[in-house]
Design goal:
By secondary structure, the chain is mainly beta. Helix content is 7%, strand content 40%. It is globular. 36% of the residues are buried.
């Protein structure tokens, strides 16, 4: 597995080794020991599958308390996948990183706990699979406005199709539940 560091150190772009021949291909997308060796979670407790039409934007979602780390990949079609650091006290707070994930490039994005996540389908349709480090809890379900000017994500679509919940999401400055990093004194 090729691990590509991003501008936000905790977010990683992963490229699995792909073995192709005339029959098709094989790739390993998760291996507990190899992930642990790379410093990634070796235990996931929930798998999710999302189907979206072109222009659908899902996000920006996070869970607090009990944040979820997510290993995201697009198995059919293509998406623009985004992670936003929402950890109060982080040097990269409110910064975002985005990558194209597709069935062709077979890349995966590691979105750690404490980050909001969203994606937009850029192909006719897209199937997205993601593994989560903690279970979904409706009481902790949170989101942020997809086009918050303080975050300023450069989405590949100007007028996306949104859920009612995502269209009415708060801006980062108005969010009532954000993960807070422990102070330097608390870590010593």
């Amino acid at each position: 597995m090729n691990v590509i560091e991003t501008a936000i150190p905790e977010v990683l772009l992963l490229e699995p080794k792909v073995f192709s021949d005339a029959r098709g291909f094989f790739m390993e997308t998760y291996h507990a020991e190899k992930f642990a060796h790379l410093g990634l979670p070796s235990t996931f407790v929930q798998d999710n599958h999302s189907f979206s039409h072109r222009g659908v934007l899902r996000g920006l979602h996070y869970q607090e308390p009990n944040p979820q780390g997510k290993l995201v990949r697009c198995v059919r079609g293509a998406i623009f996948d985004v992670a936003v650091d929402i950890r109060v006290g982080s040097p990269t707070f409110a910064k975002w990183i985005g990558y194209d994930l597709s069935e062709e490039n077979r890349r995966m994005l590691w979105v750690p706990e404490g980050f909001a996540h969203g994606f937009c389908a850029t192909s006719e349709s897209a199937d997205v699979l993601y593994k989560c480090t903690t279970l979904y809890e409706a009481s902790g379900d949170c989101n942020l406005l997809w086009n918050d000017s303080e975050i300023a994500i450069t989405w590949p679509v100007a007028s996306p199709l949104l859920s009612d919940k995502d269209a009415a999401a708060p801006r980062l400055r108005d969010a009532t539940k954000l993960p807070v990093l422990p102070s330097a004194a608390a870590r010593e």
